[in-house]
Amino acid sequence: MGHLLCALTILEVVGTLGLIIYALLVEAGNLVDLPNKRIGFYNFCLWNETAGKLQCLEVSHLQAMGISWLGIALARVCVYICSVLSFFYPLFLANVRCVDKVKGWRVLLVILTTKTLLLSGGLGIFLLQTSPWINPSDFTGGFLALVGTLALILLQILTGAGRGAAAAWGLPGQWSSGSKELHCTSLV
User: Fold this and answer.
1) pLDDT of 166-184, one tens digit each?
2) Which residues cross the membrane (predicted)?
């Protein structure tokens, strides 16, 4: 059972990193990327009928449309801080075996909860600001990848809570120096 949880934890971390890299780097933070509109953390482009092409709007135009640039910037900061924490999370995970197990798992749960709050808060703020211009059917791969990232982070919280409880009760399957699972942490 312990090896299964270890493998699940590693798969969750790899999946989270893959999805967040795809959403923020490959898709460039665009949640909507259609021929007639491109809306993301760095773009707000709508179709211009007169010019016959996408026109990216400046901050002054966004403010005239009722979109708070401060809200968009805050959403961007929240989502990108979550990505930074995701990149360093494997180091925290590998460090758990070197410290007090119960405290280590508590720290991991705090980090995961922080990532959840940042990502869901950032997405929520962004969607509240841009909802008049986005239909649910407009979302493309970037948005779906961020929602998948959020789901995997929630799954990591459940897995981490189980591992932390096992460590607190001294049950088999915890990562400790006397456990066969010691090698599992070196894979992270």
Assistant:
1) 655 565 554 444 444 434 4
2) 5-25, 67-93, 105-127, 139-158
